[in-house]
Design a protein that fits this description.
Blueprint lengths: L1 E2 L8 H4 L6 E6 L10 H7 L8 E5 L9 E5 L10 H10 L2 H13 L20 H17 L6 E5 L2 E2 L12 H4 L3 E2 H14 L7 H6 L7 E5 L5 H12 L5 E4 L12 H9 L3 E4 L13 H19 L5 E3 L7 H9 L4 E3 L8 E3 L2 E4 L2 E2 L7 H8 L2 H20 L1 H12 L1
Parallel strand pairs: 1-2, 5-8, 5-15, 6-7, 8-9, 9-10, 11-12, 12-14
Antiparallel strand pairs: 2-3, 3-4, 13-14
Helix pairs in contact: 7-9, 7-13, 11-12, 14-15
Bound molecules: zinc ion (ZN).
The site of zinc ion has 5 residues, from loops.
């Protein structure tokens, strides 16, 4: 058996050498989309059912040999090029293609019946058709109903009076830290109102059943993720998202590498909360943003031995540019601190808002954010007035909060 991965047409004298035949993974569904740009033409013809790869045996014609399988994939028609989509269709299906090749080798595979189907050979892509495809994709994505999810944002969970034992020290950071008993009560309140377990962001993106899922997120990477929070979540089989400030890994009061790996082993999602936790992420230049996102995802990927594609914005300083830089660094899901349930896409990255839980907030608030109603609006109004202050005041705003806290 031989696999041909070349652009040139092989001479019959070559492709007939292997006894079991020569096979190609053709970009495009045959026989409708033969020749080298099948994926492009299926996209250009608004024919999404036929965007994919065909496994076929080479014969004398151009992509006319026996067909053994079709392989599609999930793709982002707005953000991805046809070249990337056709590579994705192949790479996402290597396992299935391997199985089929083994069947062919074993003599058990049967070619698919394609009699009576349209057959056409397509040429090079056209720029006009490319632009029309992208225009249509953009319009479609704008019209698509946004996915809704309720995401709660927690930070550290600490013993009473010992706020500095986990996460960033100081008064301002401590506003976001819950005492252990309070956190237990928040979880108990949630358990009373939800009908199904909180989901991971990957499950939320994959599901489109109209149910508004709940996601639990924990920012900063303080050591209490390991010493307090995971134990409570694991008790109920719940999964959380732990967003880690990677420059602080292994420092006092922060998670170390072994603890991060242990969280992941228990099924929790690990993501980045930037490298250095900039005070105002949205004020950074493009290169600095790229550096924060890509360096921190690389650090975590090295710790875990798998790609890390989830992130949250430090300090709640979100802008579209922050998300675009995250997307350019390979991040697929980004949590902000905007108190909203609708999500949106930025260059193929899904952006989710979150409701922040503060120290001293009554436990029922976690539940009320989830079941809807007044607290959500309250936080929406509060947040948006705060955002105005941030824009006007910049660093002065941060100083004012510190000053108020010290009174
Ligand atoms: Zn943070």
């Amino acid at each position: 058996m031989m696999i041909a991965r070349c652009k040139t047409l092989l001479h019959e004298r070559i492709f007939t050498i292997p006894a079991k035949g020569t096979f190609v993974m053709h970009p495009g569904i045959c026989p409708e989309y033969r020749n080298s740009h099948g994926c492009f033409w299926a996209l250009a013809n608004d024919d999404p059912q036929r965007v994919g790869v065909t496994l076929l045996q080479i014969d004398k014609g151009v992509d006319t040999g026996p067909v053994f399988g079709y392989y599609g994939c999930r793709y982002d028609e707005q953000a991805e090029s046809h070249i990337r989509i056709q590579h994705r269709a192949l790479l996402d299906n290597l396992h299935g293609i391997q199985q089929k090749l083994l069947e062919i080798e074993g003599g058990t595979a049967v070619p698919l019946d394609v009699t009576g189907r349209a057959s056409a050979s397509w040429g090079q892509p056209w720029l006009t058709r490319y632009l029309r495809w992208k225009y249509r994709a953009r319009r479609r994505q704008r019209k698509a109903k946004p996915m809704r999810a309720v995401s709660l944002l927690y930070h550290d969970v600490v013993p009473r009076g010992e706020a500095d034992t986990s996460g960033f020290p100081g008064l301002q950071a401590s506003r976001y830290k819950l005492e252990y008993d309070d956190f237990c009560q928040h979880i108990a309140a949630l358990r009373r109102v939800i009908t199904s377990k909180p989901v991971t962001v990957f499950e939320a993106i994959a599901a489109s059943n109209g149910v508004r899922p709940l996601m639990l997120t924990f920012d900063d990477g303080g050591v209490s993720a390991h010493t307090a929070i995971a134990g409570i979540l694991d008790r109920y089989g719940w999964r959380g998202h732990f967003l880690i400030t990677t420059d602080y890994i292994g420092k006092p009061a922060f998670l170390n590498e072994d603890q991060i790996r242990a969280l992941r082993r228990n099924g929790h999602v690990i993501g980045t909360h930037s490298g250095s936790h900039p005070r105002r992420m949205s004020a950074l230049g493009w290169e600095e943003l790229l550096e924060e996102w890509s360096r921190s995802t690389k650090t975590l990927s090295d710790v875990l031995g798998e790609p890390v594609t989830v992130a949250s914005v430090p300090g709640g300083c979100y802008s579209r540019r922050v998300a675009a830089a995250a997307a350019a660094s390979g991040i697929k899901a980004l949590f902000t601190s905007e108190p909203i349930t609708t999500s949106h896409h930025v260059d193929g990255c899904v952006v989710f808002g979150r409701y922040t839980i503060w120290r001293g907030m009554r436990p029922a608030m976690s539940a009320e954010f989830t079941s809807g109603g007044f607290p959500r609006y309250e936080q929406f109004l509060f947040w948006n007035s705060k955002k105005v202050a941030k824009v006007i005041g910049g660093d002065a705003y941060a100083k004012a909060i510190n000053w108020v806290l010290k009174r």
